[in-house]
Structures are given as C-alpha cells and as structure tokens.
What we know:
The complex is a heterodimer of chains A (147) and B (406).
Chain A: H1 11-18, E1 31-37, E2 42-51, E3 54-63, H2 66-79, H3 84-99, H4 104-109, H5 126-141
Antiparallel strand pairs in A: 1-2, 2-3
Helix pairs in contact in A: 1-2, 2-5, 3-5
Chain B: H1 5-10, E1 20-21, H2 32-45, H3 55-75, E2 83-86, H4 89-104, E3 110-114, H5 123-132, E4 135-139, H6 149-155, E5 160-166, H7 178-187, E6 191-195, H8 207-210, E7 214-218, E8 229-233, H9 235-240, E9 251-254, E10 259-261, H10 275-291, H11 293-312, E11 317-319, E12 331-336, H12 341-350, E13 353-354, E14 356-358, H13 363-368, E15 374-378, H14 385-401
Parallel strand pairs in B: 1-13, 3-4, 3-5, 5-6, 6-7
Antiparallel strand pairs in B: 2-8, 7-8, 9-10, 11-12, 12-15, 14-15
Amino acid sequence: MQNNANTFYNEILTEHNLHPYHKHALPDANFELEGVNPNCGDDIVLRLKVEDDVIVDGAYEGDGCAISQASADMMLDLIIGKKKEEALRLSDIFSRMIKDKITEEEREELEEAGILQDISHMPMRVKCAMLGWRTFRGMMETDQQTE
Amino acid sequence: MGRDITEIRADFPLLTGEYAYLDSAATSQKPQVVIDAEKEFYEKYNANPLRGLYELSVEATKRYEEAREVVREFIGAASAEEIIFTRNATESLNLVAYSYAMSKLQEGDEILVTILEHHSNFLPWLNAAKRCGAKVNFLECDGQGRITEEAFRAALTERTVLVAMTQISNVLGCENDIKRFAAITHEQGAVFVTDGAQSVPHIPVNVRELDVDFLAFSGHKMLGPMGIGVLYGKRKLLDKMPPFLYGGEMIETVTRTGATYAELPHKFEAGTVNAAGAYGLSKAIAYIRQIGFDAIREREDTLTQYAFKRLRENPYVTILGSEDPADHHGILTFQLEGVHPHDVSAILDESKVCVRAGHHCAQPLLKYMQVPSTTRASLAFYNTTEEIDRLAEALGTVRRKLGYAE
C-alpha cells in the first residue's frame, strides 16, 4: 500500500519547512508584500532588501503547509545575491516547471527548488508551491517599495 | 446488521479497490444499484419528463414522480407536492433564501444562524439580509458544539423572521435538538430552516415529527447520484412563495406580458429536470431502508468509537468537539500538532487513505474555535475497522515524514 517513491516530502523539503533559513524579520527591507492562498490558509509576508537592482537580502514570515513554506525558503536561497532581472528569470523557470515543462538544464538552475517538480502532478498543491514565487513576482511588477 | 460487512462492501464498486475512503461527509460512495439505475433510466426511459404526450415520456415522468413519492415517504412529508427536487442542499437553501426570505424580509428584520453552519446555510441568508436591509445574528455553541435552550431563547428576538440551523454539524458531528428549537422558533412566529445534508443519510428524519418548515439535503451524500437534491417545505409556505427560477416546465400559461405559474411542486422546478438523478436517489433510499437506520446507527457508532480510540493513541492528535464518540455521528475533525492539514491529507494519500483537509466550508466556526484549518475523517456504515487502522497507522508516520524527530 505504501508508495514512498511518489512522496514529495523528501528530506530537503522537510528541512526547509522545519528549519527554514530565511523565516525571520527583516527590519531593513525596502520591499514588502503579503501573499495569501485563502483556501488553504497559506499566508506569508515576503520582504526583500534591494540595492542597485541586486537582491542583497530577503526573508519571510507567516504560516502554511510544508510545501508553501519550504518553497518560499528555497526561493530565497536561490535569489538572494542575484540581480532582480535574473531572479525574475529564475522565477519564470520555476513557474513553468510547476505548471508545464522545463529542460533538465533549466531545472539545474533552480538548485534545490528543482525538487518541487513533482508538484506539477498535484494540481491542488500548485498554489502552495507557487505562493512565495508569485508574491515575489507581484512585488517586483507592482514595485512594492516600502516608505 | 442483517448482512455481513463483506457482502455490503461488495455492493459498492469503489470500495472493492485499494482506497480507505474516509470522506463520506463530503460525498458518499455509491452502490451498484444506484449506478445501474442512472444507466437504466437513460437506456429504458429517457425522454423529457412532464411534457411529452407519448408513452416514453409518460414512463420518464412516472419514474421521476415515483422517486418524489419515495422521498416523501422517507422523510415523512404530508404530501409529494412538498418535495421539490433541486441539484443539492445548497440549491435548496438558496431557493428558500431567494424565494421565501427575499419576499418576506423587511428592513430591520433578523435572521438567526448558528455558528455551526456550513457556508451554504449561512451565505444565502447573509445575501438575502443584505439585499433587504435585514441583519444576520450568530448563535454560538460551547466548546463541545452544544447549543443550549437558554442561549437559543436569548438570541431570538421579536424581529427574528427565520432561524437556520443544521441538524448535524459537518465539522463537529454534533446533533442539534431540532424538534425543540423549531418549537421555540414557532412560538416567536418565525420559520425554521434545517440543513439535513449530514443527518438524512445517517439518522431517521421525519419532517412532521420535527415540525420544521424547510429541510434541505443532497442526494450524493446519501448513496445517491451527484446533481440531485431535495427541498422539503410546508405546503402553506411553498404555496405563497414566488418562483425561484423562471422558464420552462414551471408555467401554466404564458402571454407576451406575463404568466401564470404551475402548481407545486413544478412551480419550483424550472427547466428540464434531473429525472435520472431522482430515479437513482430513489434506489439509494431503497438501499438505505434495506440496510435499516438501526443497523446503520449501530455500525457507525461502533466505528466512531473505534476511530476515537485509535486516534487518541497518537499524542499529537486533538479531536475537535465532544469527548464522547456517540456525539460525533462518524465525523472526526482533528489537528495533528505541528503539521498543516494539507500535508496530513497528502501524506495519508500516499497510503490511499482519503480524508478531507481545510476549513470544511465552515470558516466562521473554525475561527470561533480558534483553529486555522483541520483534517476530517468521516465514516459511513460501509467503512471497516481495518480502514480506521490504516488511517491511524498512516497518521503515525506523518510527523516523521515531515522531519520531526519524535
């Protein structure tokens, strides 16, 4: 009955969920946006510190399922230190991975976040995996600068 | 129970597979007789009922109207004209809200709903109240889900026009004393609407004994097909209500400037009806009667007790509502410490255990109980202790799979 091959709750995901690196306050952030999945109750606030178009730091706070929280954490691992345009390009790859198809080379670019590829087979969880990334894109596109 | 559980399970094609189906409060599984009935209708009787003057259409009409009579007898209504076929309980409740409440409500009137309600027995009233300048008041329960007579009397006011109360909560599984609350409501001159979606499949419900004004329920939660539901209404109320949907099959005569409407129940059944669904529902009712509510109740109580015992063995599980399994009617809503219900449900799914996760369409209740979101296992007479064991065992692996050391 047990089918462990299909589980996406692997060590990388659970580690990011239970011991997130980036789940904390970020007092000197200059970008902030809340992302919510009303149906699941996933709710995060994403904060970034951006200088000269480079994401120098980032963090999130909030609650939600393991997938939503770990995905946001992995995203921050990936985009901190990157230029804004590069981070948006990676978030586009992530979005295509979850909703459609990407190449193996593209998946490697996503580093640990690539492990979420199997979520594409779980339509109900797509929104969970996308929450952090969607919030990041929304923040950049609508220029959610604080102050 | 007269028949062995193995025999009963063999009646349900989906239960012979590998799933442990523990989500019957969302929708029940269907016995072969119901599946066959839908097919039989389309193979043997299919014509547009209530219209055609040829033999086949008369046959289709007969199957449909016989189904209405089966429902009438099942819930003890005075006449078949009081049985309106709808799509589901939600549509039944909306029918009452749009047709009865909106034509009756005056500015300043009040509707009383309980905090236990499914969104479908709250939002139609909120909408009607907003449109009419009326107000919706909430009646709260205690931590066990109980509503006391004292609290109920205190919440009723002279402006209360309608009370909406579920018979069995889809989250806590507790049963409200509908007969008593309906009687108190009538003393105030208000009407009493009951959501029977979770009760009609599990306990005998007799509308004349309860003396409710309206009762709504869904076929798909009681072994019947999806897309067929029932509204029972007292004739004296239904007669005065304007139609809900306008169109075909609900008229007597139509001119360029107006129409006279059909008699009950067809006044409320506009458009081509779901006759195959009604026929399927009548077979589902026959199946329930053959098993018998005594046997159903006994088996569901035993299973609920067993599930309580197994879930309580897990120190991280908290079951919502009453401490007494007998108050739960097969519904066990719980939290697993440190794990989001969507993760619980997804991990149980790896073991083919089907449970519901989320807010169960009762967000005000969860907010009131201060729980963000929960997992729900719900049982029916066709479940087994083995399936509950599979739930308990799979649940025991969830925290470990999510990286907790335990």
